[in-house]
Amino acid sequence: KKLLIPVVVILVCALILGGMNAALTGAADSNRREQLNTILEYVIPGGGEYEVEEYSGSDESIVGVYRGENGAAVEMVVGGFADDIHLLVGLLNDGTVYSVSVLDSHETYGLGQEAKGDWDFLASLLNSNGELTAGDIDAVTGATITSSAIMSAVNTASKYIASGGGGVLTGTADGFGGPITVEVTMDGDTITSVVV
């Protein structure tokens, strides 16, 4: 009988906590959606209304595409040094980077975590067209992996939007005999032609 009372109290507490968790989960999801909508107002060029576009490509770092009249925002999750980095990249319709917002990052405190608010680093990503290299950015000191991961995400988002979610992707690099330009035509995530 002495054991029964504490067991009942524990069960009642567990039921109360379970009910509170269920009730607050809906509120947390609603708050996350509201926060994302507010951020998208600033990230998408021109703000305003947007449509959620279904992404069917093969790049697993792209988790969402939000297309407005003047451009789009690509939501991405990329691997950093310590953990995943969740960000939104705002782009004009031609793929030019308009804005970058790091939504969540659990990188090393004092190093990679600084990328979230390092305005010099974030500003060095703007106005690019998917061809940034380490020499083009003002990387965060002591956070090369984090800086490179964010730069790579920005390049990926830019190329995706520039291709219209498919279409022709063009790249140029220095070859042995001079510059080489390659055009790859895409249909979704399938390559339909390559022209060198």
Helix content: 25-40%
Which sheet architecture does the biggest sheet show? Answer: 5 strands, antiparallel
Which residues sit in consecutive blocks of at least 5 with pLDDT less than 50?
A: none
| Strands side by side in the biggest sheet | 1-2-3-4-5
C-alpha geometry: elongated
Oligomeric state, counting identical vs distinct chains: single chain
**Rounded to an integer, what's the Rg over CA atoms?**
22 Å
Number of discrete helical segments: 3
State the end-to-end distance. 84 Å
Mean pLDDT: 80
- How many strand elements? 8
Which structural class is indicated by helix and strand composition?
A: alpha+beta
Helix and strand pattern: HEEEEEHHEEE
DSSP strand content: 25-35%
Give a quick precis of the structure.
By secondary structure, this protein is α+β, with helices and mostly antiparallel strands. The chain is built from three helices and eight strands, in the order H-E-E-E-E-E-H-H-E-E-E. The strands form two sheets. A five-stranded antiparallel sheet has the order 1-2-3-4-5, with helices on both faces.
